[in-house]
Amino acid sequence: MRILFDSEIFCMEPYGGISRYFVELASALRSQGVDSRIVAGVHINKYIHNEGTIGLRLPNVRGLRRLARPCNDVLGACYSRWVHPDILHKTYYGDHRWQPKSSVVITIHDMIWERLEGVAHPLSRAKASWIERADAVVAISEFTRTELLEIYRVPESKVKVIHLASRNFPDRSAIVAPPKDSYLLYVGVRIWYKNFDRFVKAYSASRILKQDFRVVCFGKEFSDQERRLFVELGVQERIVQVQGDDSTLAAYYRNARALVCPSLVEGFGLPVLEAMKCGCPVICSGMASLPEVAGDAAVYFDAGDEESIRVILESALFDDERLKTMVEVGKARALGFSWEKCASETLGVYQAICGS
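Below the sequence we write its predicted structure tokens.
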């Protein structure tokens, strides 16, 4: 069986959960004897490596994606005609000029744009087109599947839930040195639905949280608007931003007092799973897919209520025995999510389409 992953997501993001998913999936499929190829073409992605990949990484300069698309269309068309893949697994929702003759699978990560902008948004329309065209749809959580069925009225038999997994982090905690004082960790982007501002306001309202813990944000640099908020709340000296590779992130997970994930909506919630795997307690929103991932390993707050966030953080962070139990339960729960399992279940979807 031959599986082809197209170039789209790898031209869009140097880092990110979606491109990480496809790189890990393709690699795990190859380890199970499946001929899976990423036809990345001209791309900017940092996860891509040579094995099982056709492509060339270039610097992420403005306009590269627009210029790369014709080249990648030609490469995808030529490669598809040459190897005749059984499955095209779309990596995102955009179209391309070449039309595969193989069966099509698409993975749906969330319904955030549909909830925010409605189904008339161009991205939503593109997604709907591929969902209709696909022979099978993979949803990364039961929450995403439920929203997908509600919004697009997809036949239930067409959608399969396959959970994501956590990367295998290298343990270089002794080399990478996070702050020596106690800190709360926030991982990832801080756009509106991540609810970061409300978390900061809850933190700033607590004397004991500000006194005992800093907040470390692993991700992009703070915006001017965020910096103004910190000054307004008087916490500009207590909230810091860091970046780094997997080793650095793993060290921050392993040394944090807890990961705080205040999202209003998530299609899955990879930082929660990553934290559990690294032995970091999780205190998070009780909304969307997060309870599906964290189960009884996390402590939950009402993400829409600053007071709830403050009270839950104060009650959990100073309870050593409770945090110790959360670490043990989290590590055990994380064992149920693996890329081998993800690849095996995805292969089952491919085989069902191909009738073998």
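The mean pLDDT is 93.
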